[in-house]
Specification:
about 250 residues, alpha+beta, five-stranded antiparallel beta sheet, 11 strands
Length: about 250
């Protein structure tokens, strides 16, 4: 039972921090360097620790970037929030557990040092390969600073926030699209999908082909494409006319 409770609590904390992280802008120096694909690394800390590493240009001209984030349990307020949540969760579990010998005590709650290590082990990682036009689009979206989501608040050890996808900034919206098209988890041993981009005069179309034979499509002009157009784009992929990103 103790292991299950720890896992469930960690998932709750991780989900909360992910939502908060999504609304936080990366360092302006990172955005400036991303536009030119200048090799560099930037780190910022809040409820989560975020690291942005620009590895440089690949032979095909795309810019390789590594982005990672993990819950910042080194922040006393974040760890205190974790303790409050865990105590509340374990109290409910203890109320349901009739066997007193199996009940959880405060001594069973992981220490701050343990949670710091746990947070690092569970960090989210993403490797992206941005073209020049994609980097320019990210740079321009960032300049708008138009997020309408209110910032997270920490009061009495509790992290509270309100997040609405319709209020996401232009930068977050674009990164969310790129996370599905030109980015992937670098630790995925056997890729479940192959990602391509097909360049046309008026749009770029991203195609993800899955192992089960299914495909997904996303074009930059945000125009819905019909089955006929999908078949044409997929033919271009099969004929080697599109660039494979992953």
């Amino acid at each position: 039972m103790k292991k299950k409770i720890l896992t469930a609590t960690t998932l709750i904390i991780g989900t909360a921090v992910y939502a908060v992280t999504l609304g936080i802008e990366p360092p302006v120096q990172y955005i400036n360097n991303l536009k030119t694909c200048t090799k560099s690394t930037f780190k910022q800390s809040g409820a989560a620790v975020e690291e942005y590493t620009i590895k440089g240009k690949l032979p095909n001209g795309r810019c390789e970037v590594y982005i990672s984030s993990y819950t910042n349990f080194a922040d006393p307020k974040v760890y205190e929030g974790f303790q409050i949540m865990t105590k509340s969760f374990t109290q409910m579990a203890n109320d349901m557990e009739k066997d007193k010998s199996k009940q959880i005590t405060n001594a069973d709650i992981p220490t701050q040092e343990q949670m710091i290590e746990q947070g690092k082990k569970e960090k989210d990682e993403m490797v992206c390969k941005f073209s020049e036009s994609e980097r320019k689009a990210l740079y321009e979206a960032y300049q708008k600073h138009d997020s309408k989501n209110p910032p997270a608040k920490v009061e009495n050890g509790n992290v509270s926030f309100s997040f609405d996808t319709s209020k996401m900034s232009s930068y977050d919206n674009l990164m969310l699209t790129f996370s599905h098209t030109v980015c992937k988890n670098p630790n995925e041993p056997n890729p479940k999908a192959k990602k391509y981009v097909c360049e046309y005069a008026d749009t770029s179309c991203y195609v993800t082909k899955y192992q089960n034979g299914a495909s997904s499509f996303k074009c930059t002009n945000n125009k819905d494409i019909d089955f006929k157009q999908m078949n044409i784009i997929e033919k271009h992929v099969d004929q080697g006319m599109c660039e494979q990103i992953f």
